[in-house]
Amino acid sequence: EIGKWLEARGKLHQPIASLTLGDLEAMAVNAISRWIVLQSERLQRQDWPQEDPVAMLLLG
C-alpha cells in the first residue's frame, strides 16, 4: 500500500529520508485507514457480536 501511494506521487525512487513530514503523515493516515477497513471486513465475516464496543466502533 505504501509503495502504491509513493508510486502515485512519483516519489518511489526517493530515499525515505527525503520524504517530508506531510508525506509521512499521509502515509500513516492511509495505513491506519486501510487497517480499519480490513478489520471491519474481518469482523463482518466472523459475525462479531454487534454489542461489542470494538464492533460498534468499526462497524457503526
Describe this structure in words.
The protein has 60 residues and is mainly α. The longest helix has 25 residues, at 21-45. The protein has helices spanning 2-8, 21-45, 53-59. 0% of the residues are buried. Helices cover 65% and strands 0% of the residues. It is built from three helices and no strands. The protein has one domain (2-59).
In short:
The chain is mostly helical. The protein contains three helices and no strands.
- What structural class do you assign from the helix and strand content? mainly alpha
Major β-sheet annotation:
none
Strand content: under 5%
Estimate nothing, just give the exact number of structural domains: 1
Shape label: elongated
Radius of gyration: 16 Å
- The separation of the N and C termini measures 25 Å
Strand elements, count? 0
Arithmetic mean of pLDDT: 80
Point out poorly predicted stretches: none
- What is the H-and-E element order? HHH
Any key phrases for this structure?
60 residues, mainly alpha, 3 helices, elongated
Topology:
Layout: H1 2-8, H2 21-45, H3 53-59
